[in-house]
Amino acid sequence: MSGKAPSATKQEASKSPKNFIELRIDEDNKTGRFGGEVHTRFPPEPNGYLHIGHAKSICLNFGLAQKYKGKCNLRFDDTNPVTEEDEYVQSIKNDVRWLGFDWGDSEFFASDYFDQLYALAQKLIKAGKAYVDDQSADEVAAQKGTPTEPGKESPFRNRSVEENLDLFQRMRDGEFNEGSKVLRAKIDMASPNMHMRDPALYRIKKKAHHRTGDKWNIYPMYDFAHGLSDSIEGITHSICTLEFEVHRPLYEWINNQLVDHRPQQIEFARLNLSYTVMSKRKLLELVQQNHVNGWDDPRMPTISGLRRRGYTPRSIRNFAERIGVAKRDGIIDVALLEHSIREDLNKVANRVMGVLDPLKLVITNYPEGETENLTAINNPEDESAGKRELPFGREIYIDRADFMEDPPKKYFRLGPDRLVRLKYAYIVKCTGYEKDDNGNITEIHAEYYPESKSGQDTSGLKVKGTIHWVSVAHAVKAEVRQYDRLFMDEDPAGHKEKDFKEFLNPDSLEVIEKAYLEPSLLKARPGDRFQFERKGYYCVDPDFTTEKPVFNLTVTLRDSWAKIAKKG
RNA sequence: UGCCCGAUGGUGUAACUGGCAACACGUCUGAUUUUGGUUCAGAAGAGUCUAGGUUCGAGCCCUAGUCGGGCAACCA
Questions:
Q1: ipTM value of the model?
Q2: pTM (2 decimals)?
Q3: Number of helices (H), then strands (E), in chain A
């Protein structure tokens, strides 16, 4: 009997509603199925880079282990040497670590179990539940039947245990050519579940493996290796995506035949994000056809892309928490991802002045050659971030969008005879402007009110707008890469008749060669994140040098003026 | 013509063993603001795919259907 007040447990439960997997685990804990243990695993195949969808799975698996005080293994599902490479192993480890998860010494490889798996396959053969088939892949496929018609049994299905054992060993020893023989489970060629129609368990591949070298000529298939690896590692809940649902009977069949510890496979819906694609194949296509500049292009939904884009690990974890876990597949609005990063960066990113589309403004009544150092607050959300000095002078750059020749009444910025505050500096009044032959505005003239200085304003003037600026004399020229969504369609891969690449956004990257930033940014280091006041969050790109500073747009600030302007 | 899974506001997720549908994002209003940011206050928006059934009572249970997704790699 516990003396706990029922209200306490109720309150706890209402704090964070449980997802169906947690409910399932609670049930197993209640019945003592796994002795109250919770042991999960994240099992990537090292054949590509991790993306935000994997992040969901990582957060889920490691998160479950944390919640239930269990363990989560990192296991590389490396059973196919033709596509897998060590380079991917390294990038995956790097990404998981970056996301903030620690697998301690629980780092495994399915290839570590090849000997055990081989022995288990022999055991299956001895039990009369597996056989070597001499037919080609095409022949096997032809006999498989269709979802509505049963398959036909292989003529090699009833070989003797001895012959199967001998043949399997010779497969291992490299006596046969690739594709000439395959080890199959002997289950049921008439099963309504296609995966139960004598699935392949081992195939011959005379290819060196990134870890086992040329030791093996045969490699286990996913269905054979995965569940057994789970069992070997003592996994209790083997969480995977929905497409493996139909594999579950096979997963269970294999473990039931061969091992005592039988994990529970649970499937959940993979993540889909609007305005992007998530399949490895499609992402690879974007990279190979140079639609993006590599796997870590900031427009890619890969972990490395998001990292270069300026996303924080915490924002991604929060995102994963917020989207929840269920079996229904849908499409998450990228606005939620963007909200997660804004939420985090708002609290931690220092504010800074950056003019992306420069327009010179000359303060005609300000003394020539004079410089003032003004005090600027680094982060209004975090006093401990301190203050800094900002040089001000007669000539400054402002953003072109902050001036209109003929502004509507709702526009709060600069226009002929209008007043605006230069943030941390003075209030200025536009007294005129110059245009070139094409009618483009080339320069603004203004007069400042000396008594309106920030912090000691005695002018009594009231202005509706405050704009950012950078002193011409002190400006740091930088390259700013403005990123926008990669696709123009909400579900680019969802059109049966059209290739997803038709929806590529031609304006997903705009490189601004000459942006002007405040001088403090020269001290920035790759990975640093800032808020360019009134514009958005930016991070320092790895390409950054003090000779040529480079910044990436992570996400723009919310912009209610854009909404007003849009409405007209 | 088979098997498996799913269906709750615009989007995603909730609703303890049935008890008058909640949270987040988004949208809209207003306040504050030396960021048209943030913050704060508030609003609109679903009656839970359909039809039956069980029940005092159904989003939750049962039946049938509809719609959506998945399954026939020697890929994972």
A1: 0.96
A2: 0.95
A3: 14, 25
